[in-house]
Specification:
The N and C termini lie far apart (44 Å). A hairpin with an 8-residue loop joins strand 2 and strand 3. The protein has 2 helices and 7 strands, in the order E-E-E-E-H-E-E-E-H.
Length: 137
């Protein structure tokens, strides 16, 4: 019997909301979905937990710094077609911050800004599903 194994990449994403109804989104600097809005997040590095990676990526991409323990788990998102580059499994986290929290794009983000939850752009990947799961909690 022949076995085949799929390459799976491990990522972490963060939904950051304010107490007055905004969500932090980053504009992607690179393909796929270059120029589209997404949640901050990225690859889990060797030796990291997904929670530590989520906190690191949030700081790198949006200039928002949180201790890993402040991030509340939302869930695991592992639909086989969620990323056009191949199989990606992400663990998503939620963080609530006060209105007026300063954001600054960096790393893989061309822009970072607060968007009203009532008027969101189309989101890259399955990030609309992740956001919905965070808000339904």
């Amino acid at each position: 019997m022949s076995e085949s194994f799929e390459t799976i990449r491990f990522t972490a994403d963060v939904v950051v909301t304010t107490t007055d109804g905004y969500v932090l989104l980053i504009e992607r600097r690179w393909a796929p979905f270059k120029g589209q809005w997404a949640l901050p997040g990225g690859h889990v590095d060797p030796g990291e937990t997904s929670r530590v990676a989520a906190a690191r990526e949030l700081g790198e991409e949006a200039g928002v710094y949180a201790a890993p323990g402040e991030l509340e788990p939302i869930g695991v998102f592992d639909q086989p077609d969620r990323d056009p580059r191949g199989r990606y499994v992400t663990v998503a986290y939620h963080l609530t911050v006060v209105p007026g929290t300063i954001v600054e794009a960096g790393d893989d983000a061309a822009n970072a800004q607060w968007w009203p939850l009532s008027d969101l752009p189309e989101l890259a990947f399955d990030h609309a599903d992740i956001l919905r799961a965070a808000l339904d909690r």
